[in-house]
Structures are given as C-alpha cells and as structure tokens.
Amino acid sequence: MREVTKEKLEKYLNITEKALQIITILPPEGSQLRKAADDLLMMATSYFKDACYYKEKGDYVTAFACVNYAHGYIDAGVRLGLFLGDSSGLFAFE
C-alpha cells in the first residue's frame, strides 16, 4: 500500500491518544529527569495535536508523520523509564 488511508490514520491516532491518557510520569517533581519527562510529554502532545490538525485539513500524509513522531516520543519515555506504560500493547517497549 502506498497511501495513508483515513482508516489507517484514525487507527494510529486512537492508539496514540490512548497511550497519552494512560502514561504516568515517574521522576519526582523538581528533578532533572522530571524535566526530561515533561519535555518528552510536551513534544508528544504537540505532535499529536498537529496530527489532528492536519487530519482535519485532509493532509493525511503529514498527519501520519506527526502521529508517528508523537508515539515515538511516548515510546522513548517508556523505554528510558521516564513514563510508566502498561501491558496494553500500546508501547513498543513494555
């Protein structure tokens, strides 16, 4: 397949939205690791919002790129131990 369909885009938007809802930031407030976790979460949230924006404009390719960046930030945070995920299968490293 050489295109991003509406169904595929919605699938990945839903996965990332669920992941954003269930992650927990692990490092304590005020620590350097907390700042890193907050930065990763901010980037993930921003890219997710961008993905939704581009989807609404009909630009599925850019939306798909943005949602993958968003989920990449989430997965990086889980892998680094900055975020707690769960065993839902939403994360690349669990």
Largest sheet: 2 strands, antiparallel
Number of separate helices:
3
What is the helix content? 55-70%
- Strand portion: under 5%
Principal-axes shape call: elongated
Give the CATH H-level superfamily: AF1782-like
End-to-end separation: 29 Å
Number of strand elements: 2
Class based on secondary structure composition and strand pairing:
mainly alpha
Number of domains: 1
Radius of gyration: 14 Å
Give a short synopsis of this structure.
With 94 residues, the protein is mainly alpha-helical.
Please tell me about this protein's structure.
The protein has 94 residues and is mainly alpha-helical. It has one domain: AF1782-like (Substrate Binding Domain Of Dnak, Chain:A, Domain 2, Up-down Bundle), CATH 1.20.1270. The chain is built from three helices and two strands. The chain has helices at residues 6-22, 32-56, 60-79; strands at residues 24-25, 83-84. Helix 1 (6-22) packs antiparallel against helix 2 (32-56) and helix 2 (32-56) runs antiparallel to helix 3 (60-79). It is elongated.
